[in-house]
């Protein structure tokens, strides 16, 4: 019986051996072809993933500096603690790019893994503009509390993470839900010059955050495990090792948004996944080189998009408003992370003059607004000067970093028109009230319109261009 079985096996082997050989040859050729195509696919995926990750990386930079790194000048004291800024910003302040002096900031980070948190705000006097802009780990503006959305009345607002399924408790005016476990609020309270600082401070001291259990005077739920936050290293985060940072952050964005399931499956092919370890040294050389090349492709594509962007109209918003446009999300983070949704405020950048030449401080310019051309703002508008490439405020002899409709002493023409003088040296005593000082070198000016009216969006209002003085 065994002899018969052996003979049968030998016969089958002789019959199928050629077929198996041909099949193996096909598989080898197919694998070789795949190996040749894989680096290009890997490079393209890495480019896409870097652009996707870019705003999350620089959001994490702020998170780390404000909540983890006690040696950082930006440290706010950890999660669940307000840090208010009431003094006007100056050139020495480097916390964020393109800061403003119209609305001093109030920062607070919340960890929603444990339980929801409650923001309490006081009644805001004198119709003073204020806003709390809430941002998730993706940098989506997912919620707003303030003059435009909730008014100036006192209120209590609950913020819940993706895993909370509780009922709205009594005393809560509204519930906002985040896709991510960590969120940040960037509060802004209107400041009318240095003499108004104490008034702003009194309001800021009444902004409060508390865990839901404390708000309800109940025992807190069991604590969550401590998080080991990776040290922020910008050179590493903008290299192939961006994947390690992204994998860390993705842990706190679970479950993944339904619109990104296929995207994440594609990213898995280069080692991206929530909580997955990543060590570039363990990759084979072709894969490592392809990912590194993809990162450089992503940086180049981002730089190109930045040059083509002149306003913030569609750069900031909810996931639904942004329509998962990851390049816009990256451009927004690069040009001015934490910008407002357009309904709250619009930012319009001046990069060149009416002749399409780059702005430079040694060339005097005039911005002339006919009365009908003044920015249509429900609240107010301003224009702030920033040096390039750092995008910080510009030191100048009159300590004026911005100019706008609330600037004291601003002079209008008899017909309601307005001329602003933008240059490095003073335009003279008779024009100094309308002077926006510039650095000697390259710069950009950003106009902020708080509470933009319909003409901003329907095209009936157009921004005026800088014209050479005397031209």
From TrEMBL:
Organism: Caballeronia humi
Pfam family, one: DUF1214
InterPro entries assigned: DUF1214, DUF1214_C_sf, DUF1254, DUF1254_sf
Keywords, ordered alphabetically: Lipoprotein, Signal
Top-level taxonomy: Bacteria, Pseudomonadati, Pseudomonadota, Betaproteobacteria, Burkholderiales
Protein name, entry field: Lipoprotein
Domain DUF1214: residue ranges: 344-453
Chain ranges of the DUF1254 domain: 80-211
SUPFAM superfamilies to which the protein is assigned, alphabetical: VPA0735-like
Signal peptide stretch: 1-37
Matching PROSITE patterns: PROKAR_LIPOPROTEIN
Top-level taxon of the source organism: Bacteria
